[in-house]
């Protein structure tokens, strides 16, 4: 995989962010401030931020604790769920340990049933997410769930969360999303300025930094530095341009990005939850009803747990054009039913509407399929 060797320290900073974040998490907790753990992009982070809490993603990305999880959970379950549960159960994840409350949502069946067991050893609160994004009922349900979460946080942590504080948190998150969006929009450059592996490092690493103002500045500086250097001639080679969609990736599943980039292509856009799905749209700052504004943004996320799920297609359509994508790779975590079933819709759209090749690959949190991934990617990229 070709990387920009002249920018190592910044990329390493993001790459190491999860590990280094443990120390910042401890320092944060030492100040007696609350930490909220989340498992999903639907969770409106603005609410905990509005009471001065830190928000941390607990989605695990390694197979280290899967055997422990399988004592309680079925083997034929998505590795993200098993691994996340396993890290909680074994107390091996400091972020889980430091979380005063875990907030989940009723997304896929596996996750929502797992929360019932997790509730035996951790304080878990589950928001009732509707299965559809359409109709007043769905909107009103999600809005009322957001208000309920605010009330629960106020009661549990004995604080008042004012609408002004929520507005400030919306503004902060919007600036963070915009900085990250400007960064991953570097993927539009053709030939690319940086590899997909480096884009992912920054997107993943930024979720483990607690001083959000600093992170916004850091990401902005990185973007403008890369742009300046690109304009003065530092470019990668022209190669086929790949869009990754599907289940969340990060940690061990970066093996998919590596297999693509080691075999002659670049990933220029990540549609999944570590990328644009979470970041592309901001919360309206014009709407005086902050709960409606939050409900509108978060309910529109194009996840396969929704039926129907046209917002995923809308984003893919736009990104394939804007990022001049040559092919789409749909990443499925084993036993993820909603994304697996949705592959047919995505394949038909990509092949028939966009006239470009599509490939789906199923993987897990082991490294046993790396050889097979390389073989499949090399054959796929060769025909582009
Ligand atoms: S908004 S993608 S973070 S639900 S991969 S656990 S769906 S069986 S992670 Fe997700 Fe929220 Fe959607 Fe994003 Fe279930 Fe599938 Fe596993 Fe998944």
From TrEMBL:
Domain of life where this protein originates: Bacteria
Annotated transmembrane regions: none
Gene Ontology molecular function, alphabetical: hydro-lyase activity; iron-sulfur cluster binding
Cofactor(s) named in the record: [4Fe-4S] cluster
Keywords: Iron, Iron-sulfur, Metal-binding
Keyword Protein biosynthesis: no
PANTHER family linked: 2-HYDROXYGLUTARYL-COA DEHYDRATASE, D-COMPONENT-RELATED (PTHR30548), DEHYDRATASE SUBUNIT YJIM-RELATED (PTHR30548:SF6)
Family: Belongs to the FldB/FldC dehydratase alpha/beta subunit family.
Protein name: Putative 2-hydroxyglutaryl-CoA dehydratase (HgdB-like)
Species name: Acetoanaerobium sticklandii (strain ATCC 12662 / DSM 519 / JCM 1433 / CCUG 9281 / NCIMB 10654 / HF) (Clostridium sticklandii)
Organism ancestry: Bacteria, Bacillati, Bacillota, Clostridia, Peptostreptococcales
Gene: yjiM
